[in-house]
Amino acid sequence: MPPISAARRDRAVVTAGWMVRAGRTGQREEEALREGLVIVGWPELDDLTPCRTRDELREQVASVYPEASRARIGNWTGQLWRIRGLMEVGDLVVTPLRTHHDQIAIGRIAGPYRYRSDAPRGFQHVRDVEWLRQVKRSKIQQDLLDSLGSLLTVCEIKRYGAVRRLAQVVADGVDPGAATSDGAALGDTPRELMAAAAAADAGQPLTLTIRELISRWGFARRTARVVARIESDLADAGLATRPPFSEGWIGNRIALIQVGEEPGAGVPVAVPVQAGGRRHRAGRQEADASPG
Predict the structure, then answer these.
(1) CA–CA separation, 193 and 186 (whole Å)
(2) 146: left (phi over 0), alpha (psi -120 to 50) or beta
(3) Alpha helices, DSSP H, located in the chain
(4) pLDDT value at position 277?
(5) How far apart are CA 155 and CA 205, in angstroms?
(6) CA gap 211, 222 in Å, rounded
(7) How far apart are CA 79 and CA 239, in angstroms?
(8) CA–CA separation, 91 vs 25, rounded Å?
């Protein structure tokens, strides 16, 4: 992938960045790079275009995966809504590559979500991308690589000044490193905290005290009502705490963990009524049981 032109460098200032994986074994990488796309799985799901809100998308996901837990439904909905409704044209996108050893592809979102009905299963949900540069992982500093370690197929990346630094990598191939102002803050609101947890490296989840957790929701005491509220919000975001924040001393540290990777083999899905009126369930045939 050649270095970008001066004209393209001029457009390198962006405000949002995303990571989109191309399959557990990199099975979607070749087509993504060749066709200028990011591609996600979930082949049982039809076109997401009619889903105008996240709630509508959640209903569709829940109907297709009726036996998935609430947390998984929330997590899958969040990932798919990023592709369907949150990414904007001009945002940066990163795909860690498996078939190109030790490489990372960086591009710019170039079009809205679309559904390719004629594409193979698992290659239908896409966003158009202008691929800008392919760099070795060794050119990226470790803290930024850690931000690309989430198990999720789709997540936002913003810790440690990720967007600013990736734009610089696009411009000249060099990661300038974190600035003092970048930090690794957990966020002051529930939304900011949950976004940071979703983007964290699965091997290094965000940790905080139970007191710090409930304070993000504006509470000082861990009552039954508070626990129910926070558990509900975390489940909707596809997150949980380990150990459960409902147990132990309020000063104990807990980890916010991701509980909803892209569905893999054995995940029950709803199948339309077949000829003769019979209905059956089928697990996924696709091999990517973990990150998409």
Answers:
(1) 5
(2) alpha
(3) 6-9, 29-35, 54-64, 70-81, 142-147, 162-172, 190-199, 210-216, 224-236
(4) 43
(5) 14
(6) 8
(7) 12
(8) 25
DSSP 11: T
- Residue type present at position 26: G
Helix, strand, or coil here: 22? coil
CB count within 10 Å of CB 204 equals 11
Q: What digits encode the pLDDT tens for the residues 45-93?
A: 999 999 999 999 999 999 999 988 888 898 899 899 999 999 999 999 9
Q: Which residue blocks in 125-282 are alpha helix, DSSP H? A: 142-147, 162-172, 190-199, 210-216, 224-236
CA–CA distance, 35 with 17 (Å, rounded to integer): 20
> In terms of Cα–Cα distance, which of 169, 139, 179 is closest to 9?
169
Tell me the C-alpha distance between 216 and 243, whole Å.
18
pLDDT reported for residue 182: 53
- Kind plus residue range of the DSSP H or E element containing 115: strand 103-115
Q: Give me the pLDDT at residue 74, please.
A: 87
Q: Using CB atoms within 10 A of its CB, is residue 84 exposed (0-12), middle (13-18) or buried (19+)?
A: buried
Q: Please name the residue that has the structure tokens 């929330």.
A: 74
pLDDT of residue 194: 85
Distance, in Å, from the CA atom of 261 to the CA atom of 246, rounded to the nearest integer, reads 24
Q: What is the pTM of this model?
A: 0.68
What residue ranges of the chain have pLDDT lower than 70? 1-14, 179-187, 202, 260-292
d(CA 286, CA 123): 11
Q: How far apart are the first and last CA of the chain?
A: 23
Cβ atoms of residues 213 and 229 within 8 Å: no
How far is CA 178 from its chain centroid?
22
DSSP class of residue 251 equals: T
Three-state DSSP at 101 gives coil
